[in-house]
Amino acid sequence: MSQHRPPGEPDRPVAVPALPDLPEATVARLPEYLRALHNLAENNHETVSSDWLATAAGVNSAKLRKDLSHLGSYGTRGVGYDVALLIEQIEYVLGLTHRRSVALVGVGNLGHALAGYDGFATRGFRIAALFDADPVRVGEEINGLVVRHVDELSRVASEESIAIGVIATPAAAAQRVADLLVAGGVTSILNFAPCVLAVPDGVDVRKVDLAIELQILSFHEHRKASLTALPAAGESPLTALSGGLAATDPQEAIGT
Questions:
Q1: Residue 68 structural domain
Q2: CB-based burial of residue 232 (10 Å sphere; 0-12 exposed, 13-18 middle, 19+ buried)?
Q3: Domain of residue 47, CATH code
Q4: Is 107 annotated as a binding residue?
Q5: pTM over 0.70
Q6: Tens digits of per-residue pLDDT, 178-213?
Q7: Residue 47 host element (H or E)
Q8: Is 110 annotated as a binding residue?
């Protein structure tokens, strides 16, 4: 089902198709497309080509066109995609047409920064409650919200219809917090704590570990450096392994 407007057809609302079953990789890219589209809309652009949108989102245009085809949007040859319509389609699929209430647990340095971030409100999310176990933090006011004790989490999550829980606690406290969120009816959790959470079926967890991301970048830095370091004359690349584990005999190197 094509969702573009044929040339010359007057502006009118177009029904968004039934919620598609999207590949996870496509879901992960939709927020990037949405960010680029909002930038276009703020600069009064009405249409966008697939090439431009793909470049702005950091993907190739063929992948973008395939992703958007899952939404029933194919654009118009020579015109491109309708920016406003595509924003509506992506926001619908991502569930952003209804503002979702978020509970943030842990208001240390990271949690405090997240609690004060204005970008959540402009993207459909409302920080509805803050929690911490530290008596020094409990009672503190951040962005108009008073920090509650974590023991109130399950009750408040249920009363406030919290849709998403954000965990920004130390790793040792994260599992208890997850259990309290689940007990309060929360089925989506964003976990910043450096640990793996055990949750029941039907509860979705997204893990954000900044240290792991830095380690992955460190690998790429290491790889780029190794590619520029040429082995000495007559030396096999296998003999340059770090930590003194190099093998001078190729057969020895592969364990034969």
A1: 24-94
A2: exposed
A3: 1.10.10.10
A4: yes
A5: yes
A6: 999 999 999 999 999 999 999 999 999 999 998 899
A7: strand 47-48
A8: yes
